[in-house]
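Escalated from tier 1: nicotinamide-adenine-dinucleotide holo job.
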Amino acid sequence: MADEEKILKLQEIIDRSERIVFFTGAGVSTESGIPDFRSPDGLYNQKYSVPPETMLSHSYYMSNPREFYKFYRDKMLCLEAEPNKAHRKIYELEKAGKVLGIVTQNIDGLHTKAGCSKVYELHGSVYRNYCRKCGKLYRPEYIKETQGVPKCLCGGIIKPDVVLYEESLNDETVENAVNAIENADCLIVAGTSLTVYPAAGMIRYFKGESIVLINRDKTPVDSAADLVIHDKAGEVLDKIKVNV
Ligand code: NAD
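Tier 2 regenerated the structure:
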């Protein structure tokens, strides 16, 4: 199918769907300047003495908090990033009453920054931070501006509310996300390699009509989708009109 035909088919699917769920990953934010993990210019292909998967693990955070925070501040805390065309079109569709939820693996907060309200952040958000000792909440700017390991007034160490490797997902977020996916009539999976579990496995709960995949590279579920578009999510979604 030619590219234009695919956009037309996507438009038809979106027009006839009333309960769309978007399932997004790091690829929807690369057009906002935030690197993903697995693209050729992604973080996993840059050279570090300790692999990013290790640096972003719970045990590394506990044993090497200073190095963890250096990497986290440099690569994960992108507070200046702005929503791109993908985030903005998803918001327009939500505003038009066509979106049941946005289930995201991203921690960058860009769906919320674009205005979306039904966002289920499976891996947490850099915008929330808390003291591990007393629970006091801290703004992300505090983490960005401090040096070394950010500490609370009580002396406790602050932790970003992001799910590190070896940590489990938040039960309530998972329940809400599964509920949205189960009740969707259309699932649009965008910008994810679908390799990080358990998040990637959640799309199996979908039992609606159409699955669409918008991803620059191939994914393990391409063959199961009704429509596959290997292109940039922002550029593709920008071509979609919001018809109600
Ligand atoms: P990933 O790096 O494994 O895969 C990203 C996918 O997006 C790739 O398949 C790539 O082809 C595709 N892609 C890149 N740019 C694209 C674009 N403009 N349009 C469409 N597709 C594009 O990322 P993942 O699947 O989300 O899983 C890895 C983990 O990455 C997640 O757990 C997430 O928490 C974490 N992460 C998040 C951010 C963020 O919050 N922005 C950034 C890096 C990593």
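The radius of gyration is 18 Å.
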